[in-house]
């Protein structure tokens, strides 16, 4: 029992991590966000997802390089603290908590919207509250039970997408579901070309593309609770890029081959359109169920990762001490409750939030994610610079083509922030994001955490 009270349990197996990381990458951003991205970029969105997917692969390799050498619960927050200083670690931890609270507010609200499909007379906020209560309860289970549930959540999404891709290829090549007339892939260039809105359209879509990838970094947070970090994490990270190619690029290739891109997103989700075309009458109901599980899965993962982040901040004396306590299942239960309490704001917002706010929420979340990904890259660069040549050679898991890939990925993230500043709809993120970081900096110095910097770093190293 003593062990349970002080450290997280290593109950996650390889299949849990693989499906959790894949499930994190396949969320509402793909099922619904892809429609608005297609409107901006047309078929060129395929290039946007492929290129951004490559950048995410490099970011995950950078995280994996550190996580395999030093698997800890706070993951990138702890690495930022160790290699960049106490303030970056503090900001990264609390910023990650904030970005997932904002994202989960959108997810529980989305769950309410999806339930309206079946129960149009029940107020949306009731479903949002029910989703929050259920997901918080799941997070009180031991980590193996949590991993098992997330495994099945992710499997539903994956099976749906694979079925759609395989059926779609059947229609494209052999005319299955289309009266034997093969559709071919000419729709990709017949309606204004591959880049109908030019390269500007692809650039405009990058914010939504990057939002879709939010959550992949969760692989790093599981490092403190995975049974065999070296084998499991390396395999999960190495397959990220290929999974993105299959599930994002593959799905969008099929959708835009079957349908002219100008029709996608006009009548609901692109996935509903495609299932309809394949002659499945219950298409809307099936996809609604899948998207509901995607929203719940994302919220579930968000509560999981933010609770671990609060646990790590408490261990470093930068959050109330009680948040560092574990229950008999080895779960940071008070940290789960604090996150769930913050999410109640999302339930209240269901009375007030107009549709426009969802664009703002995704933009604010993307800003928070870009901060996190930037901290991962900067920590890894500093970590590498601190190694002696023989230590660097002996690394079990290396960033390919370092340092070029680290700096190149960082430059891409800066480009996305610049684009968010340029376009009016996403500009709010560059007001809310820096304002939140400013509040955190003021709190950090106001509470005198800077005076404890040396002590905190010493105790963190001792704990590790």
From the 3D coordinates, which CATH architecture would you assign?
A: Up-down Bundle
Kindly report the CATH topology.
Answer: Amino acid/polyamine transporter I
Strand portion, in percent?
A: under 5%
Uncertain stretches of 5 or more adjacent residues? 459-464
Total number of helices: 21
Q: Level of helix content?
A: over 70%
Number of domains: 1
Which geometry do the CA atoms define? globular
Membrane topology: Multi-pass membrane protein
Main location: membrane
Domain Amino acid permease/ SLC12A: 16-441
Keywords: Amino-acid transport, Cell membrane, Membrane, Transmembrane, Transmembrane helix, Transport
Can you give a write-up of this model?
The protein has 464 residues and is an all-alpha fold. It has one domain (14-388, 395-462): Amino acid/polyamine transporter I, CATH 1.20.1740. It contains 21 helices and no strands. The chain has helices at residues 2-6, 14-25, 28-31, 33-41, 45-69, 76-83, 86-116, 124-138, 143-174, 198-212, 218-221, 229-238, 240-258, 270-277, 283-315, 333-352, 356-385, 389-393, 404-422, 429-446, 453-463. The longest helix is centred in the middle third of the chain and has 33 residues, at 283-315.
Provide tags for this entry:
Amino acid/polyamine transporter I; 464 residues; 21 helices; 0% strand
Short summary of the structure?
The chain is mainly alpha-helical and 464 residues long. Helix content is 72%, strand content 0%.
Helices and strands in order:
Elements: H1 2-6, H2 14-25, H3 28-31, H4 33-41, H5 45-69, H6 76-83, H7 86-116, H8 124-138, H9 143-174, H10 198-212, H11 218-221, H12 229-238, H13 240-258, H14 270-277, H15 283-315, H16 333-352, H17 356-385, H18 389-393, H19 404-422, H20 429-446, H21 453-463
């Amino acid at each position: 029992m003593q062990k349970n009270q002080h450290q997280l349990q290593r109950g996650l197996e390889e299949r849990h991590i693989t499906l959790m990381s894949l499930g994190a990458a396949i969320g509402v951003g793909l099922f619904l966000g892809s429609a608005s991205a297609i409107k901006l970029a047309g078929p060129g969105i395929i290039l946007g997802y492929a290129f951004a997917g490559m950048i995410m692969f490099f970011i995950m390799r950078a995280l994996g390089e550190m996580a395999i050498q030093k698997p800890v619960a706070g993951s990138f927050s702890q690495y930022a603290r160790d290699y960049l200083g106490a303030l970056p670690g503090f900001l990264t931890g609390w910023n990650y908590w904030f970005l997932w609270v904002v994202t989960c507010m959108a997810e529980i609200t989305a769950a309410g919207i999806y339930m309206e499909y079946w129960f149009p007379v029940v107020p949306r906020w009731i479903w949002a509250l029910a989703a929050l209560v259920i997901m918080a309860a799941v997070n009180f289970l031991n980590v193996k039970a949590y991993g098992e549930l997330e495994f099945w959540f992710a499997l539903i999404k994956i099976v749906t997408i694979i079925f759609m891709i395989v059926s779609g290829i059947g229609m494209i090549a052999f005319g299955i579901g289309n009266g034997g007339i093969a559709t071919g892939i000419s729709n990709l260039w017949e309606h204004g070309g591959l880049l109908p809105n030019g390269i500007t359209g692809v650039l405009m879509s990058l914010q939504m593309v990057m939002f879709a990838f939010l959550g992949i970094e969760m692989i790093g947070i599981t490092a403190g609770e995975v049974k065999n970090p070296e084998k499991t994490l390396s395999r999960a990270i190495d397959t990220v890029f290929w999974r993105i190619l299959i599930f994002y690029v593959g799905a969008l290739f099929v959708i835009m081959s079957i349908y002219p891109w100008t029709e996608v997103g006009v009548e609901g989700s692109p996935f509903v359109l495609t299932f309809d075309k394949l002659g499945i009458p219950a298409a809307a109901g099936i996809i609604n169920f899948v998207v509901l599980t995607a929203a719940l899965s994302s919220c579930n993962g968000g509560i999981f990762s933010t609770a671990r982040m609060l646990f790590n901040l408490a261990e470093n004396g930068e959050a109330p001490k009680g948040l560092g306590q574990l229950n008999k299942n080895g779960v940071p239960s008070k940290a789960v409750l604090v996150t769930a309490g913050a999410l109640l704001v999302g339930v209240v917002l269901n009375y007030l939030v107009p549709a426009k706010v969802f664009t703002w929420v995704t933009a604010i979340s993307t800003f928070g994610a870009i901060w996190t990904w930037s901290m991962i890259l900067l920590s890894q660069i500093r970590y590498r610079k601190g190694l002696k040549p023989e230590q660097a050679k002996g690394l079990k898991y290396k960033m390919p083509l370092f340092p070029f890939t680290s700096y190149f990925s960082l430059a891409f993230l800066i480009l996305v922030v610049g684009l968010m500043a340029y376009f009016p709809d996403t500009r709010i993120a560059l007001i809310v994001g820096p304002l939140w970081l400013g509040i955190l900096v003021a709190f950090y110095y106001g509470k005198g955490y800077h005076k404890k910097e040396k002590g905190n770093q010493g105790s963190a190293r001792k704990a590790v």
